[in-house]
Amino acid sequence: RGSAPSSLSCYENTISITQPLSNIIYCYKNGSLESRFEIDFGALACDFDAERDLYTGNPSTFAPYLRTRGYSLPPSRFFEFKNLIYFDFKSVDETYFVFLDKASGVTHIGNELVDDVDHGIFGLPIASWDEKLVTIIEPMDLLDRPFLPQGLIGRELDELSNPILALHTLREAIWISNED
Question: What is residue 152's three-state secondary structure?
Answer without folding.
Answer: helix
